[in-house]
Specification:
Layout: H1 3-9, H2 13-27, H3 33-52, H4 59-74, H5 82-100, E1 116-121, H6 123-126, H7 137-145, E2 148-153, H8 159-168, E3 175-179, H9 182-186, H10 191-205, E4 211-215, H11 224-236, E5 240-242, H12 244-251, H13 265-283
Parallel strand pairs: 1-2, 1-3, 3-4, 4-5
Length: 286
Amino acid sequence: MNPIVFHIISGQAFFTGSVLVMLAAWLSTRESRVAKRVMVLVFLLGMIAIVVSSTSMPYWFYGCAGVITLVWISSCFVKKWRRWSAYAVIGVWAIAIGLEAPYHLTPTIKPVASRSMTVIGDSVTAGLGGGDKAETWPQILARKHDLQVQDISHVGDTVSAALKRVQKAPVVSPIVLLAIGGNDILGSTTTEQFAKSLEALLAELSAPDRQLIMLELPLPPFYHEYGRTQRNLAQKYDVALVPKRVFLSIIARGESTLDSIHLSEAGHQTMAEVVWGLVMPAYATD
């Protein structure tokens, strides 16, 4: 995968963009004509990076940051505003970095009483079916680490389809990992339908003494609403949200996929290793 594409889809471009906007604000306090010209270019690059990163910051924060940034832009015509508005821009985008950073940290999973888990996914988990005989990553996980894995994954499943499968197959595992939603983004599911289905699925799965883990979806530019839904519902249902860069780092390797999305045999091996790294603390004392 192209490093620039990875930087954008992983959401890391948000940090780059924020830093560039802060740098532009600082440059605006300089009197040099060269600094002014560089400031414009740096600011534009920063805003583009923020927008295409599809980062799901709260609406209220984007509103506040937007107003402060507009006041700073207006200070180009009102010199007495320039310095304090530049410092305000630096401050608000520094806060943005602080608010976003926790979503890029790998969550910690608490110990559980039994060596079992449930996986809910689509073809990235189930494989392509048909002539695809590769051992899937849930099967590898079960074989290598003596786990009882309930695999509720199916080719082409959306969140809505996964909900119907869960309703027919009772889940009893203390850990449930959700790797679902890619077909909703790539298909015709609206953000409203996605939110409704995902909330119903999490409500169905939520139970005392059960930990839910959800892979955050790598998002193309302007698909931030899907990410906002995941984050809001993860907070509501106490779901451990795994940063999008984790899954993206797997499919970014050329040998890990068959078609840039679906996992190859090597990709399933890598996915199993990555997932085990996430859930291993849960079984450490078992």
